[in-house]
Amino acid sequence: MTVVLDLDETLVCAYSRNNVPADLLYSSAKSFEVSCVLGNGRMGDVVVFPRPGVQAFLESLAEFAELILFTAGHPGYAQLVIEMLDPDNRLFAAKLYRPETVRTHMQDYVKDLRRVGRCLSRTVLVDNDPFSGLLQPCNVVPARPFYGDPHDRQLMRDLLPFLRGLSTLPDVRPTLAESFNVPEYFSRHGYCLYEDASGYLTAAATIIS
């Protein structure tokens, strides 16, 4: 199975140095700093909080799945963070960044899993924003958004066992569609779903670029 992992608010969260919430400054949350180009084009320092258990999660996940990172973050920032998570460059088979996302008439920065180049029946996207996967909604495993809580346990307690169970299936999409009530969830948020040529649900979203 191929597990495509989002970065921000899924594996880590990040704040500019001057905007770290006060409750995190005085908490037990672990963090590290990277200097990178910020959204305004200027260099700045970013404080990154790894999600608790992220290293063990990635190591354990790599034992039974191929890992690919797909982030809407800019490469200049995301590459530095990934180097901290995977210093030996051995965990991720591929890394995709904001330029590889697509823009649709419904949402920007959509992660079209066809760009990963793997069999969709055996590919999942773990993302805190389910609508990042609106072109392949039945491949999405929603993650609870992470904002720095040092007591968060979702990676090892919830996601790892769930993904391990999925890894034994010949096609993950029927199970994910049922587990997360995909048609109802997307429809409730105003996204029209229809069956594609393969008989699987997709959003009625035209790729603009």
Automatic annotation (TrEMBL):
Database matches in NCBIfam families: HIF-SF_euk
Lineage, uppermost ranks: Eukaryota, Viridiplantae, Chlorophyta, core chlorophytes, Trebouxiophyceae
Native species: Coccomyxa subellipsoidea (strain C-169) (Green microalga)
Superkingdom as given in the UniProt entry: Eukaryota
CDD domains assigned: HAD_FCP1-like
Name of the protein in its database record: FCP1 homology domain-containing protein
GO MF: phosphatase activity
A Pfam family that the UniProt record links to this protein: NIF
Residue ranges of domain FCP1 homology in the record: 1-166
